[in-house]
Structure prediction request, 83 residues.
Amino acid sequence: MYSLYIIYSKKLDKYYTGSSDDPAKRLQLHNWKRSPSTKAGIPWELVYSEKFSTRSEAVKQEYEIKRKKSRKYIEFLINSSVG
Prediction:
């Protein structure tokens, strides 16, 4: 099982979208400065996760979100998953 995940840095007021088979472990790696693209924003928090049966489905959704380049869309996803 693979997941699309979105993490948020309050320090930078930015979101980061990725995919992983273990989003919790991946979040730890982001917070341990193991990812050059996110080390400036530590601490990151997981704000959204969506499961997929294959890696290709998760990556496809990740790129779809990144292609939109829309903070409003990311916040819509996060808010629609609450409750």
User: Anything to note?
Assistant: The two ends are 23 Å apart (CA to CA). The chain has one domain: 2-81. DSSP finds three helices and three strands in the chain.
